[in-house]
Predict the structure.
Amino acid sequence: MESKFEHKEIVALWREFMSEKGRRHEIATIADLYPDIRSLMVGFSEVERFNPDLAQFFLENPIETVTAAEEAIQEIIPPEKKGVANVHFRIDRLPRDSRVEIRKIRAKHLGKFLSVEGLVRKATEVRPKLVAAKFQCARCGKDILLEQDGLHFQEPLECDKDQGGCGRGAGSTRFKLIVEESIFVDTQKIEAQESPEGLRGGAEPQRLVAFAEDDITGQISPGDRIVLNGVLKSIQKGSQQKSTLFDINLDLNSVEFEEHEYEEIMITPEEEQAIKDLASRPDIFRMVAESISPTIYGYDIEKESLALQLFGGIQKEMDDGTRIRGDIHILLVGDPGVAKTMILRYMADLAPRGIYASGKSSTAAGLTAAAVKDEFGEGRWTLEAGALVLADKGIACVDELDKMSPQDRSSIHESLEQQTVSVAKAGITATLQSRCAVLGAANPKYGRFDENRMIAEQIDLPPTLLTRFDVIFAMTDRPNAKEDTKVAKHILRAHRRGEARRYENIDQIQGVDGNMIMADADKLVPTIDRELLRKYVAFSKRTIPVLTDEAMKALEEYYVSIRSLGEAEGSSVPITARQLEALIRLSEASARARLSNIVTEDDASRSIRIVDYFLQKVASEGGRLDIDIIATGFSKSQVEHIQVLRRLIRDLSDPSMGVMESELLQRAESEGIPIEKAKAIIKKLSDAGELYSPRPGTFRLATEERA
Ligand code: ADP
Ligand code: MG
């Protein structure tokens, strides 16, 4: 667009704008507080209201317009602060529909003012950048000022006569940089990626690099969802051999933070009514569960739990400042090919702010976060967010959790319980938010569950991590004619329907009954449309249910009755307060799903049914609940067996040889420990370094020697 305004005209318009009463006062205040406050923030609509042409001109010619606005500000500033208070002019809150998606940024946007939504992946440390360098000429001693732009340090070509210098060229004099008298500005480089909401079908998110300067540095952290407003710039690629290809980045003018996790989802009044109608149906739970991965057959209770995870419990801030998480963490441990990955991908896609990641991920940040010094930071350290930070206020679906890196293994606890990720490395100490629900998946330790062993024993994750999950499901896959027929039928029907969907008119195919195929949608089509369900979930977050007396009583009774099983002499500890918290969260989620602000006895029963199901399967031995199977990795009976074995080894050990394995097993069996179990315990103790073999086939206690 041709420039419609002369520079003088723009300054005049801005002068009028800045002179409006309230604004004049605001500028005076800023000048007064300078340098604590260094910017005048103006909403785009204010400019539009003042003069639509000026607003439009600003979008097309932002650099020129901002410069003019800053000149106008200087005119308004009280005399004593003129030239001292370098007030920036910043514009934010552009209309939502004028935002540009990162993947749609094109050459035509260069030089224009853009408003872009993004999820911050990386942010460097804030470091000063030289903007105007003071040099002293070695020959005449004069000081001259040289403005710096770009990233390369520029030295004067000559001792500038206009600044009173001697005019000698760089060849016949030398220039000394006077750091203390040079002018610096704080800078920070960030990288944002498209928010997952905008991504469908697992597309790889596109990224945009942005630069922040001065007072807007240091506010942005990895994991933040922000709106970046600024001018699109291009930089030439290639440092030695210049290229005709250019990279783009955004020079930030202002940043807005998305306050509410679900505000990015628009819900129309009609949709709101549809959601409320759904919520009042008695079969709403079945409907939601059936809408989760309907292509996958079965897993009713798992899907019901996943439904509750979508809605989530209530995050609480206590009077003493304690924070209690509301997010529900679920772990699926299962044989290969039981559709874990399919379910995780579905959930990541369905949940608002869902992210799918693999424990095996190869990025430096891994699942949590990392500080790295690489090309991106141009010499500065960069803080990079991993999946659990990027999923802040959403759901992180982490596949192959058992394959995560050792760093992640040690830092993931914090993320699950405190819902933060701390990084302390090379001067960077940062705490990033990871207020997300985690849906993890893992394979059993030996690839497939062994029916003869306890399930918990076969989960290859540290007990301290396992106890952070509210619910753990073991998905075993054993041939079973009756079930197999049902699964096979379901999968076959799903595939056939998928084939038929490729046709506009399936009738044209001879040999199959197309109408029948398309009509036969039962259980394959989500009961609630995916878009509507996502909105339903987003809408439900506004509901904060409170426990009723009846619900409290039901949960208390369940908890106490299960605990009491552990009171008898020699019994295991069946559950701990952690499971009670899981019950509360699940009950709250159940109420939320109904958009009810009270948690009823029914909600409590639903959560009890789920927790009891999981405990019976994963944390029981011989029909007895024993939470230590999860919490310590050993059941009560195992602990007893371990004590017996330790005693036997000690008593039977020959000072130099230790004890023969065969003898040990025999004696153990005579004390009531089956040979298989004894072998498993010996292996465990050896792995833990408590036992060693002086020679093949013999054992000794490691600790005894030290004593
Ligand atoms: P996992 O991650 O547990 O190893 P996948 O998610 O990769 O398993 O699933 C393997 C395949 O088997 C997928 O294509 C999935 O659709 C199919 N499958 C497994 N179990 C079921 C089931 N119960 N119903 C329908 N399809 C299933
Ligand atoms: Mg898988």
